[in-house]
Amino acid sequence: VPGIITCKAAVAWKAKKPLTIEQIEVMPPQKGEVRIKNLFSALCHTDAYTLDGLDPEGIFPVILGHEATGIVESVGEGVKSVKPGDYVIPLYIPQCYQCEYCKNPKTNLCQAIRVTQGQGTMPDKTVRYKCQGKDVYHFMGCSSFSEYSVVCEISLCKIESSAPLDKVCLLGCGISTGYGAVINTAKVEAGSTVAVFGLGAVGLAVIMGAKQVGAKRILAVDMNSDKFELGKLYEEVIMTYASNILVIFLLAKQFGATDVLNPKDLKDKVPAQQYLVENFDGGFDYTFECVGNVEVMRTALECAHKGWGVSVIVGVAGAGQEIKTRPFQLVTGRTWKGTAFGGWKSRDSVPKLVQQVIDGSLKLDGFISHKFPFEQINEAFELLHAGKALRIILTN
Ligand code: NAD
Ligand code: DAO
Ligand code: ZN
Questions:
Q1: Residue-range domains of the chain with CATH
Q2: If DSSP codes are grouped into helix, strand and coil, which group holds residue 28?
Q3: What is the best residue among 93, 108, 290, 321 to mutate for testing ligand 1's pocket, by most ligand atoms within 8 Å of CB?
Q4: Pocket lined around ligand 1, Cβ cut-off 6 Å
């Protein structure tokens, strides 16, 4: 019978405060639960958003992190799909195969543990982490910024042991999301025109997907021109870190963007949507918002082509914010959609994406700007905030 494990974790005690590396206690997995050792984890914008206190429902103290690869340490009663020693990726959207949503091919939003996951607990409404005698909450059903974590069996997929474990953690969120937004949500066809707003890992994964399906024109938009092509940002990263890591990341043009635009360069008072419609043949077949800014969402919708343009919201806006447009924009044939985790049914799809990485048809190297030891997690958050990183891999 598995006992309590004492290990290190990065605990977020409060919003807007740095994480602290602590000794925590991780309880044994209960019925339907699995305890995993997290081997590699990456930082996502959503972890930073919660730590910054922008999520009013964010609960503290909490262990953040949701892009990881791990190995199963022990399993609770009734767990059949994984066993100790299996390599796994935790999934913040589970797949139970039984709920109304899982049975509907139109959605990936399994609801089996939605309520308690949102409340930062396991399904029995209790937590598996303790630090300094206090309960610590779970995050997105994953809590990967810990050496060990407890997750539901339905929130795990087993992956091939030959997978590059330090890279496929990225399939737990950002890359799968951007790629799936193109393939599953928009279903972009060869020969299409595409505009991508926001060139973090999510937006770059959209560009990668659009190029792969044969889009003929891909416009990349960002307020930070360093994100357009290898240049200042790349040199800075190499100069600062190349002594101990291999820097191979790519930016918008290397991923396949044919055009770039920094809205700051537009002449006075020309709204970006007007400029884009006038200069890109009436607008784009598909547009993707990968920022989380409601103004940008409007621009992305309104520069989708009249009659048929589809705009996909990928970015997560601040809590309570609302989107606006004139309804005539939709009456005249534009479609506004959104996507969570790129529409992938998680346990069915992530192992297949891992297989694509193994066979070389899906490449992840270009998204990794830094690799740090786990203890440097606060430095990693600072780089993310400063717009000086794509994905940063932490090694336990
Ligand atoms: P990121 O912070 O690395 O990248 C965001 C980019 O947007 C940056 O390059 C930034 O310079 C740019 N930007 C900021 N303001 C802008 C503006 N006004 N116009 C154009 N560009 C602007 O973030 P990321 O990790 O790539 O994530 C992007 C978004 O996707 C976030 O909102 C994140 O929460 C969301 N996300 C959604 C899902 C989902 O399932 N829907 C999954 C993962 C991430
Ligand atoms: O089923 O109600 C639900 C919510 C499912 C989670 C959707 C999350 C989408 C965005 C998450 C941000 C990226 C980590
Ligand atoms: Zn389900």
A1: 5-172 (3.90.180.10), 178-339 (3.40.50.720)
A2: coil
A3: 290
A4: 44-46, 49, 173-174, 177, 197-203, 221-224, 227, 290-293, 296, 314-316, 339-341, 387
